[in-house]
Amino acid sequence: MPATAGEAYNRVVIRRMLPATREEVFAAWTDPESMAHWMCPGDVTRAEAHLDVRVGGSYRILMKGKSQDYDHTGEYQVVEPPSKLVFTWTSKGTGDETTLVTVEIFERGKHSELVLTHERFPTPEQAKRHEGGWGQIADKLAAYLGEAGCGQPSVTPTELPGGRS
Fold it and tell me: To the nearest 10°, the Cα dihedral for 31, 32, 35, 40?
């Protein structure tokens, strides 16, 4: 069912093709060390994540900015490896109101498609700010996965062209 005009402003949908398998993308979303590198929109240089990835488990992501820190908390509602995460999202950026994030990961050949939906924003301005932030995060996730060599077959010396090692 299409969103009504009243619902359209309170939902953000971000889509990105990622150079990794679904399993690798899901692992990036559930590993605090990985998240530290790519959950960094705007002036954020590093994220500190504490994740209890299970239905009913909580998380806290502290995005460390140059001039201030941004604290995000929530609870996992759905955990379906390697395809789906749903969690609540509460922060100063949502006016301390609880919003909902759905992360879906679809297989697309040797790559994956990320579809991130963030909804239930109290105002259109909050949705617009988060759209930019999530877009930057998705781009950084793609770059991180590409640098990590995800989705690439490993090559051993015996597999080099011409049998060279």
Answer: 170
